Amino acid sequence: MTHAPVDPAGLTAALIRCPSVTPEEGGALVLLEEMLSGAGFGCARVDRGGIANLYARWGAKGAARSFGFNGHTDVVPVGDAAAWTVDPFGAEIRDGMIWGRGATDMKSGVAAFAAAAIDFVQQMPPDGAVILAITGDEEGDAEHGTVALLDWMKESGEAMGVCIVGEPTCPDQMGEMIKIGRRGSLNAWLTLTGVQGHAAYPHRAVNPLPAMARLVDRLSQHELDKGTDHFDPSTLAVVTIDTGNTATNVIPATVRATVNIRYNDAHTGAALEQWLQLQLDAICAQEGVAGTLKVKNSGESFVTPPGAFSDMVVRAVEAETGRTPVLSTSGGTSDARFVKDHCPVVECGLVGRTMHEVDERVCIEQIHQLKAIYARILRDYFT
Q: What's the confidence (pLDDT) of residue 186?
């Protein structure tokens, strides 16, 4: 029986019509499970903490060779619906593009790798396993998404030999960039407490505001590093300073600030937290205020060293787009930060210029190109 190729653009549109704003499943994983099951994939829902996740495997469990794809079907909120020129969940086709929330980030990527995987196992059944690990919690806290899938895989004896994460990776042109790593991301909440008082009698108060100004200046002026072999220099941004004080004649007792650090492989989250604590303690001692520090590390930096796996991805991108992609570690975080503890991981996707924007949209041609890239990678990996 001849297998009809899966149209990745049609699948993208069907997924966009599923209103899967984190943490809602919205029907997206149900749709994918039905399609993958019909193509011979063994599927399991790995739901945890109110989050829906889907694991699908074609081939034998514990196969000597297994190729994995990872992605997410959850999307960020629409925002001001009135600002959209289309129905955010309508998947309208216009100007060679499909419009809607999640079109770029990343229902098109999921559709492309699902379509490539289904066609591949039907047309060229491989000696090994093809695995899809799809989460509904990448845009949220990400505590019960890909992490839950990887935990379940470990407990169940499931494993990927290598993995591609289908996030959009190209800034402007299809094929110009893939990601072999990501910076770490750390948020720190700093609180300084003095003594509240009347602004006319500052000697009777202990004002924490000048102390905080000195602290954030010290932090923002510090050079964390000069960059490493695969990463640009780490950055620290002060994102807010707040007292909650609306009175002009009151010296507040407390001031809070938040900083975000995007760091490379010259650091660990623990080392940066220790450094922040030392800076805080020094200011407190100098200014006579009390201080507290709260830190949340969203993920350590990592890099998959260039080699056979990344070379295979590069060759596929070159063959299908005519461009040689840059091996990059730029951008924010992705679920690759979790996958890297399981197996070698590379991110390869389409152009992400409109992700999270009003009127998010994806070029239909690029969806077909991405499917072709993934299909070529599968053929190269197994043959």
A: 96
Report the distance separating Cα 97 and Cα 319, nearest Å.
Answer: 23
Catalytic residue among 25, 105, 138, 360: 138
Closest CA to 24 of 101, 108, 80: 101
Amino acid present at 269: G
Q: What is the pTM of this model?
A: 0.90
Q: How far apart are CA 224 and CA 98, in angstroms?
A: 42
The three-state secondary structure class of 294 is strand
Separation CA 276–CA 266 (nearest Å): 16
> What is the C-alpha to C-alpha distance for residues 217 and 14, in angstroms, rounded to an integer?
49
Q: What's residue 156's pLDDT? A: 97
List of residues 6+ apart from 248 with CB closer than 8 A: 199
Token reading at 332: 């924010």
- Is-contact 190 215, C-beta < 8 A? yes
Q: What is the pLDDT of residue 132?
A: 98
Cα distance between residue 141 and residue 159, in whole Å? 24
Structure tokens at 350: 């389409």
Provide the token pair at 107.
Answer: 């229902």
β-sheet bridge partners, residue 363: 97
Q: Which residues contact 349 (CB under 8 A, 6 or more apart)?
A: 106, 109, 165, 166, 167, 168, 169, 170, 370
Contact 181, 303 (CB under 8 A): yes
Q: Indicate which residue of 74, 105, 119, 320 is catalytic.
A: 74
* 308: its two tokens: 């056979």
Query: What parts of the chain have a pLDDT lower than 50?
Result: none
Residue 155 known to be catalytic: no
Backbone angles phi, psi at 343, to 5 degrees: -165, 170
Q: Is 138 a catalytic residue?
A: yes
Q: Contact, 265 vs 233, CB < 8 A?
A: no
Give the pLDDT confidence score for residue 331 in this predicted structure. 86
Residue 363 backbone phi and psi in degrees, to 5: -75, 125
The Cα–Cα gap between 73 and 67 comes to 20
- At residue 48, the pLDDT reads 97
